């Protein structure tokens, strides 16, 4: 319930005073936490209406959420069972019952929202960048000119290493992207991290790797702009 109230207050502040009003009230870590929950809730709405976020016309998108669907639905089912059980146990304490029920419902919505964020925020290949995502909390744009190599590679263990970003699903990644120079990534709570290697998962990894290689080829063989006329 507290998080729901924070999210509502965040939205009201942003609507009335924009980013400056939000920054003046909430510390950076709190802003990121509340912003994440708002994106999760927005994703839930996108999921219910069959829409996606951040996929422009002409871009290729690649899903990755199927590998976690069973687990997320299982968590949601456990949440529903717990809600029913607590409703029975607390039926003689109506005030406590309402509070716990609200928390349980919000938890189930958030679990489904986390899955919805993964469904509605796929990886995207455009004419000039690769955009890698994991739900509502990782969104990194990598310009094509910074990509050195793309490998189709299945990995099931991911020991954290300096300069690596692992976007595994069900402990699996299927595509590895090496960079010529680092790109700046911000962790969930805003800590900057320079990334030189990205490992990610896609339901159709061969198609993603092929689309990315094709985009790299087009980008590197595009004709140079004609020089301007001399003055």
Structure in words:
It is built from five helices and eight strands. The strands form two sheets. Strands 1-2-3-4 form a four-stranded antiparallel sheet, covered by helices on one side. The chain has a four-stranded mixed sheet with strand order 5-7-8-6, with helices on one face. With 231 residues, the protein is an alpha+beta fold. The longest helix is centred in the middle third of the chain and has 27 residues, at 94-120. It is elongated and about 75 Å long. Strand 2 and strand 3 (129-134) form a beta hairpin. Helices cover 49% and strands 23% of the residues. The model has no long low-confidence stretch (mean pLDDT 85). It has a domain at 123-220.
């Amino acid at each position: 319930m507290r998080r729901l109230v924070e999210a509502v207050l965040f939205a009201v502040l942003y609507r009335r005073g924009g980013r400056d009003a939000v920054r003046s009230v909430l510390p950076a870590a709190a802003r990121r936490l509340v912003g994440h929950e708002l994106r999760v809730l927005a994703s839930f709405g996108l999921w219910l209406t069959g829409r996606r976020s951040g996929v422009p016309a002409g871009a290729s998108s690649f899903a990755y959420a199927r590998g976690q669907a069973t687990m997320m639905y299982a968590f949601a089912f456990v949440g529903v069972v717990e809600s029913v059980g607590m409703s029975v146990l607390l039926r003689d304490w109506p005030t406590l019952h309402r509070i716990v029920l609200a928390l349980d419902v919000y938890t189930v919505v958030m679990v489904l929202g986390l899955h919805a964020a993964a469904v509605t925020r796929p990886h995207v290949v455009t004419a000039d960048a690769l955009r890698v995502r994991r739900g509502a909390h990782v969104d990194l744009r990598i310009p094509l000119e910074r990509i050195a190599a793309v490998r189709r590679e299945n990995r099931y263990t991911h020991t954290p290493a300096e300069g690596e970003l692992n976007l595994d699903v069900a402990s699996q990644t299927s595509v590895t992207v090496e960079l010529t120079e680092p790109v700046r990534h911000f962790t969930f709570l805003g800590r900057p991290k320079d990334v030189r290697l990205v490992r990610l998962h896609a339901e159709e990894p061969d198609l993603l790797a092929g689309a990315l290689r094709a985009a790299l080829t087009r980008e590197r063989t595009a004709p140079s702009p004609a020089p301007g006329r001399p003055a």
